[in-house]
Amino acid sequence: MRITPNGRIECFAGNEVGDLDGYGVKAKFNGPSGIAIDSEDNIYVCDFHNKKVRKITPRGVVSTLAGNGLNEGRDGYGTNASFSSPNAITIDKENNLYVADSQDCKIRKISNGMVTTFAGSCEGYLDGPCLAAQFSYPAGIAFDGLGNLIVCDVRNNRIRRIGPEGKVTTIAGSKGGYLDGDQKEALFNWPLIVTVDPNSNLFY
């Protein structure tokens, strides 16, 4: 859906449940979730149940950017790659896309159509180098002003950070619960969404 500057709500792309590329409302999605916009106003959508990442041009043309619908978590180019459950998406300053592949417990990167595993190895909890680190259902993701990728690690009840140096660390959280406090004391209960303001304050 699109809300115009004058407050009009209209359907921009998609019309009913399915899996079909096409123009505007002729296209079909199944469980669209995360969304991101690049510097050329192209829209990227996590098509959760179709296990694909879709692209919508400013003119409303919908195509499949990556994923083939198979539940394999395979790296590769475009539709040769596969996702388990693409759930959230964000974009960096170079228009590279980052996708939280939640059930596969990994963060995937799409650069010029090539899908690679950016962080995560298997389900668990482990800080360290990107490809050795472990997540448990990563969901909301966003970049801060320093180029850190912030990740809601849902089942671990933690907020994780992937730094430009290629290491995953824990920012806040430990066990499930609700408690305000400093980073070591605060508790979360399945944090799902994160956003960042211009001053790099994080909101979950």
Query: What is the terminal-to-terminal distance?
Result: 24 Å
How many domains comprise the coordinates?
2
CATH architecture tag of the largest domain: Beta Barrel
On the 0-100 scale, what is the average pLDDT? 94
Helix content: under 10%
Number of helices: 0
Low-confidence stretches: none
Strand content: 35-45%
- How would you classify the helix and strand content by structural class? mainly beta
By CATH, the topology of the largest domain is: Thrombin, subunit H
Mind summarizing the main beta sheet?
Answer: 5 strands, antiparallel
Oligomer: single chain
SSE topology string: EEEEEEEEEEEEEEEEEEE
The whole-angstrom Rg is 17 Å
- The CATH C-level class name of the largest domain: Mainly Beta
Shape: globular
Could you name the key traits of this structure?
single chain, 204 residues, mainly beta, Thrombin, subunit H, 2 domains, 5-stranded antiparallel β-sheet, 0% helix, repeat
Describe the structure.
- The chain is mostly beta strands and 204 residues long.
- The chain folds into two domains: 108 residues, Thrombin, subunit H (Beta Barrel); 77 residues, Thrombin, subunit H (Beta Barrel).
- 0% of the residues lie in helices and 40% in strands.
- The protein contains no helices and 19 strands.
- Strands 3-7-6-5-4 form a five-stranded antiparallel beta sheet, with no helix packed on it. The protein has a five-stranded antiparallel beta sheet with strand order 8-12-11-10-9, with no helix packed on it. The chain has a five-stranded antiparallel beta sheet with strand order 13-17-16-15-14, with no helix packed on it.
- The chain is globular and about 50 Å long.
- InterPro entries: 6-blade_b-propeller_TolB-like (IPR011042), NHL_repeat (IPR001258).
- Pfam families: NHL.
- Keywords: Repeat.
